[in-house]
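User: Please fill in residues for this 532-position structure.
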């Protein structure tokens, strides 16, 4: 029975792909690295649990555990447990939920996976929150207090992003993350790419936070900071991006974000990004195969555009993390070899080669289910590093080997040296801080990052194990799973039977003006996707 002081425990299950391990720098060096933390830990903190905590009334005691950076305390004194899950975290989330329930705790599940597969999640919790939690979470707490908790809380509309509270970062162990400051400025994405669920879960219209709110939140983080904007596309709306960059510039932060190739083609916007402190962009280039590009709705001169844009962005001293997808129906071993060659030649600072993954809630998932090509039944394997479906022009083994080839070729010593070189220090004062040797530090970070990833890749290739942080302790769920030699939970959690019935909150979009926007046809775009 709930007590007077309600105690809520919020948990994010271990996320091996959010972990890193690089040589530790002394503590004082974090001033030079703009508060990035080296050593071992998580890459970014997700904002979902910090947002839930900020939506929780002040008389409720809240604790957050991110299993990527600390073990779960299953004996914790609490009344209500909230667990979040992306698809590849779902089996671990269910395990955690079941364990707390076995101890008599009330468990609420939420997050992107629960939003697209609520029926599956229902058997592992007392209540589930489908869609965004801004309007539902306060109701959950109130109902729980009054002893009338319902089974499903479905977001009737998307959050308008106008008055959200600042996420409770004070509850996160920020010093255990490489880039501890993540900030959200907008939600939603109009592009609705086949392999992505964002447009479905977060809507096809952009919802922007008021700029003053973003500025206010950034001020709480202080100056001399590295910030990662978690928006799906920072330049999705160029007008807004212009305003955002102007608003951020006086705050003297360094930032990175997910962007599309169009940012590199808009000279003025790119310059504004540089002036406002942009030092790295994550760009989804996806593929160089012409047929693949056509399927993704991208132009066929992609290859040349790619090289041109990379050069422009580099000329502004902005680093690029390029994302490439392997396994599209149009891919052949030749096109993938070509992709790796071009990416190396372009001297990208970082690249990731992800396996196409039919995530539940996406058009791709529905298509592959219909075609009988979804092979993997364990959601835990849906991490973009494994082959979960039957590819078209190659065997699964070939695709696996090509992925390993991409990572191995890009992060071997020779490639790192050729791509990063020993860039010259800048002799003139640079940037809002006038910090003279900034590029030294920046290049040092790129080197450290490449060496760290290179070691991880070598380890993975040699041991034949999933890429994960070296030395990161196994979570209880992973230990049990290894001991059993089979997935602990996933087989019976294999998505909804009818692929068309996958629900999503994205069918209804509330614009900040308060009007309702029903998703129209997909934009006839030459706009590429930018995302993981
Ligand atoms: C930052 C980020 C990351 C970070 C760290 C995330 C972390 N520490 O959790 C990094 C870079 C490590 C990462 C990695 C990956 N990511 Co990611 N990531 C994101 C991103 C951009 C933002 C996440 C975020 O904080 N969102 C803001 C919060 C507020 O939104 P939210 O999580 O949906 O939470 C709301 C509701 O869902 C709900 N809610 C959430 N949890 C809970 C819990 C409870 C109890 C309740 C009541 C409610 C609730 O309330 C919140 C407020 O409304 C999202 C895209 C996006 N825009 O969301 C992708 C996204 C979550 N990632 C995705 C994917 C696929 C991945 C990767 C698998 C991709 C890859 N190629 O490597 C990896 C694997 C990670 C892993 N688990 O191993 C997908 C997930 C799709 C899915 N069905 O699971 C997303 C949606 C992007 C996409 N294009 O589809 N990611
Ligand atoms: S992949 Fe990126 S651009 Fe495409 S729908 Fe998802 S968030 Fe939008």
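Assistant: Residues filled in for all 532 positions:
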């Amino acid at each position: 029975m709930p007590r007077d002081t309600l105690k809520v425990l919020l948990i994010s299950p271990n996320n091996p792909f959010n972990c890193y391990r690089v040589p530790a720098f002394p503590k004082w060096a974090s001033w030079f690295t703009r508060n990035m933390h080296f050593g071992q830990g998580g890459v970014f903190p997700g904002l979902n649990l910090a947002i839930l905590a900020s939506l929780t009334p002040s008389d409720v005691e809240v604790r957050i555990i991110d299993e990527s950076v600390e073990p779960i305390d299953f004996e914790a004194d609490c009344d209500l447990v909230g667990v979040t899950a992306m698809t590849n975290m779902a089996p671990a989330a269910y395990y955690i939920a079941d364990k707390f329930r076995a101890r008599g705790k009330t468990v609420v599940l939420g997050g992107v996976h629960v939003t697209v597969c609520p029926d599956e999640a229902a058997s592992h919790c007392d209540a589930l929150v489908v869609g965004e939690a801004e309007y539902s979470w306060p109701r959950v707490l109130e109902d729980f207090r009054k002893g009338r908790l319902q089974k499903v809380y479905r977001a009737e509309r998307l959050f308008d992003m106008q008055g959200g509270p600042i996420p409770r970062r004070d509850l996160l162990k920020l010093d255990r993350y490489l880039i501890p400051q993540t900030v959200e400025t907008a939600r939603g994405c109009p592009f609705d790419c086949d392999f992505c669920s964002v447009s479905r879960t977060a809507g096809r219209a952009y919802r922007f936070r008021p700029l003053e709110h973003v500025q206010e939140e950034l001020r709480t983080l202080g100056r001399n900071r590295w910030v990662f904007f978690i928006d799906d596309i920072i330049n999705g709306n160029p007008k807004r991006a212009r305003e955002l960059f102007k608003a951020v510039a006086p705050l003297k932060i360094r930032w990175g974000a997910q962007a599309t190739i169009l940012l590199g083609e808009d000279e003025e916007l790119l310059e504004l990004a540089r002036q406002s402190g942009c030092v790295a962009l994550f760009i989804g280039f996806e593929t160089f195969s012409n047929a693949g590009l056509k399927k993704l709705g991208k132009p066929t001169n992609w290859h040349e555009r790619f090289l041109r844009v990379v050069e422009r962005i580099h000329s502004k001293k902005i680093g690029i993390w390029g994302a490439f997808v392997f396994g599209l129906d149009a891919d052949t071993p030749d096109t993938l070899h070509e992709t790796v060659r071009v990416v190396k030649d372009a001297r990208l600072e970082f690249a990731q080669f992800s396996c196409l993954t039919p995530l539940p809630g996406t058009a791709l998932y529905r298509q592959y289910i219909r075609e009988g090509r979804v092979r993997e039944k364990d959601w835990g394997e849906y991490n973009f590093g494994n082959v979960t479906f039957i590819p078209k022009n190659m065997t699964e083994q070939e695709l696996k080997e090509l992925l390993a080839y991409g990572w191995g070729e890009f992060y071997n010593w020779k490639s790192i040296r050729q791509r990063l070189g020993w860039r010259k220090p800048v002799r003139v004062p640079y940037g809002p801080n006038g910090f003279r040797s900034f590029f030294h530090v920046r290049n040092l970070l790129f080197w450290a990052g490449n060496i760290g990833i290179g070691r991880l890749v070598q380890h993975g290739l040699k041991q034949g194990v999933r890429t994960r942080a070296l030395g990161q302790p196994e979570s209880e769920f992973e230990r049990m799973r290894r001991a059993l030699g089979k997935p602990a939970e996933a087989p019976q959690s294999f998505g909804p039977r009818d692929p068309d019935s996958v629900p999503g909150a994205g069918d209804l979009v509330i614009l900040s003006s308060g009007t309702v926007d029903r998703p129209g046809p997909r934009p006839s775009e030459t706009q590429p996707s930018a995302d993981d």
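For context: The radius of gyration is 22 Å.
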